[in-house]
Amino acid sequence: MTKMRIEGSFVALITPFNADGSIDFGGFRTLIDWQAKNGTSAVLIMGSTGEVSMLTPEERREIVEKTAKMKTGGMKMFYGCTGTSTAATIAYLKHAKSAGADGAILAAPAYICAPEDDIEAFFAECADAVELPIGIYNNPPRVKSDLHWDHLLRLMKHPNIVVLKESTTRVGQVAQVCAAQPDATIMCCDSPNLGLVVPTMSLGGHGTANMTGNIDPAGMAQLSTPWADPAQSVVFRETYLRLLPLLHFTYSAINPVAVKSLMQAVGLPAGDLRRPLTGLKPDHLARGLAIVRRLGLDEKYGWKTAPVLPLAAE
Ligand SMILES: O=C(O)C1=N[C@H](C(=O)O)C[C@H](O)C1
């Protein structure tokens, strides 16, 4: 069977909360429609950007059940299904499949810092256990281990493993993976600090698995377009350099603090962060809103952004 292929912008969505801290499903509806309308190819619900580690198992299942029914057009709906163990992860995968998910993204279980061989075996066992397209997320900043490309290339041969979402700290690894031309979608995190976007897109990558698409979905769709012809490299360069201040801003605090605070400030469904995470301080937020205005995102998306006056010096 031909593997599902995703190209373009794969946006890791925030989890919108109501004022009482409960899940804002109306907000999810609005954000999913807005992403689809602005050229997003797939969304990841309950990734790190979705504050997944602070959601209860009941909330996680309810989010899949309710948002999978919000599917819009061809935009793929993937879900963060990583549990605290292999068994817990397989249970989330089976539930996501039964609830109508298009796919799932898995990272190595957090906190245990398992050795690379165990993590490879974890991904393979999960992919064997459920007939569901799976994306593997190599995310060393969050789980310590940085899977070597040998492990990744073996895993990408699995019929159910369809996406690599790369956040490696070894930039050279991207070239090794692209050179191997695996039968899977190669995508990278949009963090400018990791510096993976330029090598990934220039070496034949299929797009970015990003979170900045929460505040500029059309811009990230343009940036994440595969280089089918040399002209796209020029579009890419111009877009990357134009969006660089926004990329640095969305990663100027631990994800998703900056992007969620900015979304709330421009009036998008977002709500507060779940404690112990807290929103940006006013002067930090003011810098983000200045970038939004400088890029013309408020006019592009119709936001009325009142200038935020930085706090008077203490
Ligand atoms: O939501 C995610 O998953 C993402 N994770 C990275 C992180 O660990 O913050 C960033 C990425 O672009 C989205």
Automatic annotation (TrEMBL):
Entry superkingdom: Bacteria
**EC number of this enzyme:** 4.3.3.7
Pathway assigned to this chain's UniProt record: Amino-acid biosynthesis; L-lysine biosynthesis via DAP pathway; (S)-tetrahydrodipicolinate from L-aspartate: step 3/4
Enzyme class comes to lyase
Q: What is this protein called?
A: 4-hydroxy-tetrahydrodipicolinate synthase
Per UniProt, what is one Pfam family of this protein?
DHDPS
Question: What does the UniProt function comment say about this protein?
Answer: Catalyzes the condensation of (S)-aspartate-beta-semialdehyde [(S)-ASA] and pyruvate to 4-hydroxy-tetrahydrodipicolinate (HTPA).
Q: Which reaction does it catalyse?
A: L-aspartate 4-semialdehyde + pyruvate = (2S,4S)-4-hydroxy-2,3,4,5-tetrahydrodipicolinate + H2O + H(+)
User: Which stretches are annotated as coiled coil?
Assistant: none
* Family as reported in the entry's similarity comment: Belongs to the DapA family.
SUPFAM superfamilies according to UniProt:
Aldolase (SSF51569)
Keywords on this record?
Answer: Amino-acid biosynthesis, Cytoplasm, Diaminopimelate biosynthesis, Lyase, Lysine biosynthesis, Schiff base
Source organism per entry reads Falsiroseomonas frigidaquae
Q: Mind telling me which CDD domains this protein's record contains?
A: DHDPS (cd00950)
